[in-house]
Write a structure and sequence with these properties.
This protein has 2 helices and 10 strands. 22% of the residues lie in helices and 35% in strands. With 134 residues, the chain is of the alpha+beta class. It has one domain: Sandwich (Immunoglobulin-like), CATH 2.60.40.
Length: 134
């Protein structure tokens, strides 16, 4: 009997039905795309049990009006003249499940200088000293 139990459990696990993806959702980490940068496009599938499953290029077909996809990341050419990019994602196992959305290209340059630790510490201490004096 003990010899048959592992085989029986293996048989049951093979017969178990996998969760089906009911819908797909786009959960972006940003509101715009950066030129010359890999921009991650986060797609999640809502399973029939209510849980979310991260989806990648094994599950999704990614297309864009400009740039090139590498897995879930869209590389936008640094010299692009586009103001926005239309993106479409299609579930491979069920092409009826798809999403289309538009992301704008960031216009401001990334030349912002971040504060040093000392500057941040001074900023944090300044309001306290002003309150004590006032």
């Amino acid at each position: 009997m003990k010899r048959f139990l592992p085989a029986f459990l293996l048989f049951l696990s093979c017969k178990a039905t996998a969760q089906k993806i009911d819908s797909i959702y786009v959960h972006l980490y940003t509101d715009s795309l950066k030129k010359g940068t890999y921009n991650y496009i986060n797609i999640d599938g809502l399973l029939s049990n209510g849980r979310y499953l991260p989806l990648d290029s094994n599950d999704i077909i990614f297309t864009a009006s400009a740039g090139k996809f590498y897995g879930n990341t869209l590389l936008v050419d640094k010299d692009t003249k586009e103001e926005k990019i239309a993106i479409k994602v299609v579930l491979k196992s069920n092409p009826a499940l798809h999403k289309e959305f538009v992301l704008y290209i960031k216009k401001k340059p990334d030349d912002e200088n971040l504060k040093t630790v000392d500057e941040l510490m001074n900023d944090m201490q300044s309001p306290r000293s002003k309150r004590k004096k006032g």
